[in-house]
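Consider one such protein record:
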Amino acid sequence: MNPTDPIVVWHNQSVSRADRERQNGHRGCVVWFTGLSGCGKSTVANVVDHKLYERGVRTYLLDGDNVRHGLNATPAMLAERYGDEFGKRFGLGFGQQDREENIRRVGAVSQLMCDAGLVTLTAFVSPYRADRDAVRATLAPGDFIEIFVDAPLEVCEARDPKGLYKKARAGQIKDFTGIDAPYEPPIEPQLVLKSAEFSPEALAEEVLRYLTEAGKLNVT
């Protein structure tokens, strides 16, 4: 260890994850929605979140756009408050390394929420398989539930809810997933949701069935 490094020690807490899960009445887990921009990740995740809320399940949804407003703000957003140097050092753009760090940070927060006994939903393009696998590796077996929201590129591009595909095609956005940057679909996801074929409501019910069958929605 470098003598100039601070000494970082993990402190065990008096309230365990099992204690929190018993109080919540269900297991903690991370439900990771991944797929192209416009595939319906956020829409389905929001429906799942609402359905779980109605059942009394304690949840939280981490959405890609929302997280970019705070934890993973862009350099320009941070510069407005803290200055250019701070923004360049701590802000995240959309290049490969920035995306990797974006997912690492979200994974770390998700791990904490899972440990608190929450059903933690995330909706991120998370295009690189290695980044998703790295999050999975930080969690206990069975805690990471990977859900591939599968819609053809042409469907996502036709939806284009934020006009990003149009800008990418025009060269106004670089390294846009599906256009000039790759998307690596999961090899063995727990669920594949065909969002071009079924409604968000129907897809959300698929997710709830999986969580029920996997024993996540109760403590035995």
